[in-house]
Amino acid sequence: MVGGMFLPTQKVLDFPITALRFDDQIQTILKWAIARESKTVCVANVHMLMEAHWNSEFASVLQSADIVTPDGMPLVWMMRQMGAHYQDRVAGMDIFLALCQQAQVQNISIFCVGSQTEVLSRMRKRLEQEFPRLKIAAMEPLPFRPLTETEDEALINKINSSGAGVVLVSLGCPKQENWMAQHKGKVQAVMIGLGGVFPVYAGIQKRAPRIVRDLGLEWLYRWIQEPRRLWRRYATTIPPFMWLATKQLLLSSPLRGVFLNGTGD
Description:
Elements: E1 9-12, E2 15-18, H1 22-35, E3 39-44, H2 46-54, H3 56-63, E4 67-70, H4 73-81, H5 92-105, E5 109-114, H6 117-130, E6 135-140, H7 149-162, E7 166-170, H8 175-183, E8 190-193, H9 197-201, H10 210-214, H11 218-225, H12 227-252, H13 256-261
Parallel strand pairs: 3-4, 3-8, 5-6, 5-7, 7-8
Antiparallel strand pairs: 1-2
Helix pairs in contact: 2-3, 2-12, 11-12
């Protein structure tokens, strides 16, 4: 809730996506960050929605998030078709850059969790050049194994004592979203899952050109960069998403009575 009001949402495949413009979502995150409220922000694309569709535990993680942004253009198109006509894309990289810009102005420090030491060090170098007044509380790579209870408590204490208002988490989907859900109420900051942003900002991977992003073909651009890692994900998530999305649009359209009742000529 913001100011005692729930944020508006639009359901895509039964999952509530936050139906606010980009700037409004950023301002909401900043308000929470200044107050150091324990909140979770999931940056959703087709892959994330399909993971939630197939896994009830992950579905509850997504449904209990404070903000679920429409990162993938197919989600934006669906939301517009369903009534959120002015919805724009709220993508991970754009969130990251906007928050860094605003955080240095509003004296909010950031804490990065996850990824690898090399990626984090490259990120720090670029951040110091592009956002010289940005306060970086810490950058903590995590081991691939789960943390012990003692290690986890130490990490929570480190985050909270650092005074960070924003925690950027890079563990990949759905691991980072599960991590945020498990730490809600423990970490006194806004936690945002930004998995793919870290290596791109570090210069290890390239971001698709704007025209490619606007056409909703960023997945193809990424696939060309990492074919072996991504082909199975895309082959198993894109076709079923298209089927479920088409079904949702047909069932919610004014022609629903025609399809269901057979009243068409």
